[in-house]
Specification:
Elements (H helix, E strand, L loop, with lengths): L5 H10 L4 E5 L3 H14 L3 E5 L12 H12 L6 E8 L2 H10 L3 E4 L6 H17 L3 E6 L8 H5 L7 H11 L3 E4 L16 H10 L4 E3 L7 H8 L3 E6 L1 H17 L4 H7 L1 H15 L6
Parallel strand pairs: 1-2, 1-8, 2-3, 3-4, 4-5, 5-6, 6-7, 7-8
Helix pairs in contact: 2-3, 2-12, 3-4, 5-7, 7-8, 10-12
């Protein structure tokens, strides 16, 4: 299978009544670790790039990231897909498509519903003409350090609106707001699983859950059987990367040459151990 489209993996997840795992990556260490863990576990996986990690090209760029992931994906047998995470910039999305991304996310969640719908439809029309898939977002998945974002039910996704939105935009998947948030949680989140069930009944479009770091496993396992077919993880994965680098550098500060030469080994070992545990949540 090797390199596939996101929709191929989401179909597998839906058939298995579970969710595919999607990880935000920033470089070779992270992307390679995700793909190797997927191959070891024989679980399809989605590698994502968040544009905010490309600011000033400090970590990577879409043009550098896409071919690297595709090359690594084609070395394994397990299905691997590539996705561009949150972007509200149509020109950036166009550039990502030109770089080889076969799935992109247009995030109009902060806009009024009608404007979000209009813009998402525009992105979908452009992307579909190039054979590229589009994830949208409906409702506001805010930030975990602000409990109001997490608990403001007025900003949750409406089942009725989701039905119309998915039908009129033609999006390939939609991220929904049901009580999750991005970043580290100050308080354990409680997903609105009743609302999720209603959204899933209202549309056939695969549903996506953002803000995956810190949600209790029992809630996730239930959500995965209620229509969540893609589960995004970034904060705790990248946080582990940073923690491992800091600890390794401190332990080996007497030998800076080998810090640079050998750091990838403990980093990838730590990431692989984490991924092995996290990916078990998917029953694919």
């Amino acid at each position: 299978m090797a390199f596939v489209k996101v929709s191929d993996i989401l179909k597998m997840a839906d058939k298995a009544h579970t969710s595919a795992m999607a990880f935000n990556c920033v470089d070779f260490n992270t992307a390679h670790s995700v793909i190797m863990a997927a191959e070891k576990l024989q679980k399809p996986v989605i590698v994502m790039l968040y544009p905010g990690h490309c600011t000033d090209s400090r970590w990577t760029t879409p043009a550098a990231f896409a071919p690297m992931v595709i090359s690594e994906a084609n070395k394994v047998k397990v299905p691997v897909a590539l996705h561009m995470d949150h972007s509200s910039d149509f020109e950036y999305i166009k550039a990502a498509i030109d770089c080889g991304f076969t799935s992109v996310m247009y995030d109009g969640s902060m806009l009024p519903v009608e404007e979000n719908l209009k813009n998402t439809k525009m992105v979908v029309d452009y992307a579909h003409a190039k054979g590229v898939e589009v994830e949208a977002e409906l409702g506001w998945v805010g930030f975990a350090d602000n409990e109001k974002d997490q608990n403001n039910t007025d900003m949750y996704t409406s089942p009725e609106t989701a039905k119309r939105f998915c039908k009129e935009t033609g999006c390939d998947s939609v991220a929904v707001a049901i009580g999750s948030a991005h970043g580290y949680y100050n308080k354990t989140p409680k997903l609105d699983l009743d609302r999720l069930q209603q959204i899933n009944a209202a549309t056939d479009t695969p549903l996506v859950l953002h803000g995956g770091s810190g949600i209790p496993d029992d809630q996730l396992e239930k959500a995965f059987t209620m229509g969540i077919n893609k589960f995004n993880v970034g904060t705790e994965f990248l946080g582990l990367y940073f923690k491992t680098v800091v600890e390794y550098a401190e332990a080996n500060k007497h030998d800076p040459k080998h810090i640079i030469l050998d750091m990838a080994i403990p980093v990838q070992d730590a990431l692989m151990a984490y991924l092995h545990q996290k990916m078990q949540l998917s029953k694919m």
